[in-house]
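anyone else get weird line breaks when pasting these?? whatever heres mine. first is seq + tokens for prot A
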Amino acid sequence: MSDDLEDFDALDDREDSDDLGGRTGAMTAEQIANLGQVLCDVLDGFGFMFAEIPEPGAPLPTPSAALVARVGFTGPQNGLVRVAVPGAFGPLLAANVLGLEDTDSPEAARFGRDTLGEMANVMAGRVTTALFGAQAVFDFAMPEVRDLSNAEWREFAGHADALIFQVEGHPLLLQVQTGGQTP
């Protein structure tokens, strides 16, 4: 693993981060709205899907299987974008992107993880532009997609900076963290 990715692992595990987030007021309402709009735009343009914010206090089910995709970035600000979804979301996204009729097809299953990683990559690019401006130049790490345990899902959902959306009947968790300026 490269030093940059190890730095992102440390950023991912921080307790005292300069997180950009939703539920604790670490972000302004405008920043939250901007991230929500970015997610909606990416899902619409990339995956032909619609995202919505669930009702406050609505239960968030823990899926039997889940995935998390993450993309780190370095530049004027360093950071990390993470997207967590139930395992069934990957093939659904892949089917939409590839124009497949059957979300249960072998192709949808085979490309589910890669498509989720690419969506996270697009999200990272759009998020950095939304937060730091179009003139800022960033380098992005390769997307990483891995399984997420039930405990990790609940921990992610419990982060003060996790934004929760509903997409095509599936929960989607979004987290954007920044780790300060590049020296």
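and prot B, same format (seq, then tokens)
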Amino acid sequence: MIRALVSKRFPWPRLIVGFLSLCLFLAGCSQPVTIDPQQTVISPDHAPHVQGALLQAVSQKSDGTLVYTYRAWKPVVELELIYGEKCLLEITNVPVDKLKYVFEGEQGLTDPASAGIDLQKPRLTIIAAAIPKGVRGKLLLEPPADWGAGGSFAVIGDTQGNNEAFQTAIKQINLAKPDFVVHVGDLTPSGQEEEMVDFLQTSQELFCPLYSVPGNHDVKSSQSAHYEKLLAPAYYTFDWGVNSLVFLDNSSGSLSREQLSFLGDAAGKGRKTLVFMHMPVVDPRGGTDDHAMTDKVAVATFLTQVHELNKNIRTVFNGHIHLYDQYQKDGVQYVTSGGGGASLYAEADKGGYHHWLLIRDLGGNIPLDIKVNQFQPPPRRDSLTLSG
């Protein structure tokens, strides 16, 4: 009887539903709502126009402020604010403490604070810019002119999804305090989007930015779609000290005419040029094992170009072969660094060890100083064999 009265007088189901709705509402107020940039109702043209970074996510704070999250793929980033709307810009993968921040508006070049832009530095590689309503112009992030002088950078390759090994290397890399890290390809086992995301999450443990080229494993599942959406364009360049760094995509075993022309233009400016790509032009092991570029016409064109520009091109870095090797030809250093975590291709006395490189420019015409840093990866959790 009491149960019947309660059920008639108190609408418990509606109260419970209302309570749960309130909880969900409050939770939504405390957490930003993430929106897939490919599916958002916000027009892509409505976001700030950006050079040097990729839009990773759009979210919304409880007060309605839109948050645009970008990942920089080179040190120089330009964000054009054309709509005058209040928003928050988060730019990740930047050398926060080594950048200059300039705003170009109606009054010319000024400090961002003069335009009401509040810059925050939540991490060593993340800058957040709170843009007030009505601000229009360009926010420029760039290293100073002497960036790279007396500095260093790290090189690693062929982690191939072994993010535990990558974490081990990262701990050593952070202690060395390089300006940035270059990954020479095969970041993932098969280039799936979730593998790229896992790699990026691991790379956030770095105290410096990470730049990269795609490897053949990174384009397996979707050609280069996931890589170019999340990491970087197929090829690009930026300056570090007196050097121009040129990043190329030979993950298919070839180099397109456009890329060869791009290299020629970049190296023809008279600056010392460092080239990064995944596959070597020659397999350093020799013999019948040949995992070098398969397009021999492109190889010949590349080598001819390097020979003609050897006064400018000083070093070519690659991965793909899971070992360490270095040789010099016609005044150009060729460096293979494929020991980032994947299974090794040689015995230790022939370069078959897990490693990363620390590169220093000693100035003048002296070859780059290359320090090989070995590490021992932990056992892979996804490859343990249980017995008994």
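btw re prot B: Residues 12-30 form the longest helix (19 residues). Confidence is low (pLDDT under 50) at residues 1-10, 12-17, 19-44, 383-388.
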